[in-house]
Amino acid sequence: MKKFYQKTAVEFDINNQNDMRLLQKQANFTYTDQYLGKEGKRLNNVFKQSKFKQFLEKYRNPPLKVAQIAILGNHGFGVLATEDIKLSKGRKEKKLGIYWGELSHESSHLSPYIFTLSHREIDAKKYGNWTRFVNHSKGNFNVIANQKTAMISNKRLPYIEYALVKNVKAGEQLLIDYGPEYEFDKKHQIFLNPSNNSLKSSEIFKLYDYVPIKGALLNVCRELIPNARKLYGPKNFVSMLNRLTKKNHDVSCELPILAANKHGKILPDKYQQGVTILMLAAYMGKIKVVKNLLKKYHANVDQQNTHNGYTALFYAINSQSSQAIKDKIVKQLIDADIHLMTQDKEDGYTILHWCAKQKNLHLLKLFFTHKKSEEHALDALNILARDDFCPMMLAISMGEIKIASYLLDIYAKNYKETIFHSRHNDWLLPTMKKIIRDYSKKNLPAMLDMLLSKGLAKNRKLHDLIKKII
Q1: Fold that domain 347-470 belongs to in CATH
Q2: Cα 230 to Cα 88: distance, rounded to the nearest angstrom
Q3: Which of 69, 157, 202, 379 is least surrounded, with the fewest CB atoms within 10 Å of its CB?
Q4: Which CATH class name applies to 11-188?
Q5: pLDDT tens, position by position, 71-80
Q6: What confidence tens digit (pLDDT) does each residue in 344-353 have?
Q7: Which CATH number fits the domain 200-339, given the four candidates 1.25.40.20, 3.20.20.70, 3.40.50.720, 3.40.630.30?
Q8: What pTM, to 2 d.p., does this model score?
């Protein structure tokens, strides 16, 4: 099988000066390897030092390129690896580069390229280097940003270092989590994965051995991709799910199911869902297939579908499989270190929100008792969805007393105070006001009794507010 990588006409070698000149014209920015702006000028003496040039040497010539990302259209760029990049043995990170730009105190203007550095900001909109092209992914990143300080001729130089935290293959995209304050346009949000590169869906179809999906498997796929007239999948992908052979397959796990029109023509990227074999196997309850994909073929457990942001974990929980099968698949995904704080597009729900929505207390308990997921589940417990509901508030709003009670107990046990008594939960008053106003009067007394037993009375403002409403 060919590598999941193809040279594209619109790509720029970051180590080639001519390529960088072309990139600057196309992306309308100026390439720099130092700070500019008012605050940056104060460090000009540092940048002139020979020690500064020596400092930059360790970041020279990374095996990367800036290229168009097909799924983002003609104006969407990203950073791709030009060769396999692996972490050194025993190391958790690999240095890649520094985020340069205009250095200033907190500015009033909005820019999608601002990075906060202590009490200052780095804005790479007009000036910067290849790091400004690294795209965002909340749960599927392979790069992190570390705030550091270098001493150059007895002067402090604060900077943000981009470091690789996962091995990447040639042609894979570098992704970083922009942080909780990053805002995006929900209508046009695309969930990127390392395998999203310069290949269009039609090009992937030509490069790989795709076959039509038929029979019972087609019906399942249409549940996940309802608008497609025809569907195609990699040949080994289809045979594995249909159990046509017991032989090992040369599986490229990131290859998606491709949707086509009634004539068999592959639809443009904006109509593709990006559902992979792991997602489909989790949805179908194929325990052995999931196990093989994770252990033998090292499938990307955090891969999200393109437009909803669902991972294999979302598909497993929302499947029609029995609880026993769901348990086994969820445990396999947890053992593979799946990210629990990933949020979907429509509601901003994490997997804990989905468990509450599905009224699945059993799986909620699994996340909080499994050694590999317990810590991450506690972090996910505080994540607010688009309606400002954390998983606890969602359970309360749905009238799920047992689930709400369990989650409130988990919170109190680990944070040594109830959520109602926490000083950090300023969002609680308007959220509880909204919940109680919309609540069924018939079920309200039982829910209030439970909330009072969990510490609601300790929050006098909240207690008085609820009294007024009822």
Answers
A1: 1.25.40
A2: 44
A3: 379
A4: mainly beta
A5: 998 779 999 9
A6: 988 999 999 9
A7: 1.25.40.20
A8: 0.86
